[in-house]
Amino acid sequence: MVEAQFNSKVKIVRSDNGLEFKLENFYALKGIVHQSSRINTPQQNGVAEHKHRHLLNVARALLIQAGLLRQF
Hints:
Blueprint: H1 2-6, E1 12-15, H2 24-30, E2 33-36, H3 46-65
Parallel strand pairs: 1-2
């Protein structure tokens, strides 16, 4: 998307150690360096961590409101 919209290549992707960013083969193919932050340091991922926490809280609230069992 970055290449198409901005005609620029991504050089570095920095993420927490989430599994959704474990794309080593893709990064190697595109020549992208993957940097990960230390575990349990949300200070290094401020905006992403806050959005992720908000999404999880909303999802939990919706599940509780729907009356689903706790296992869900």
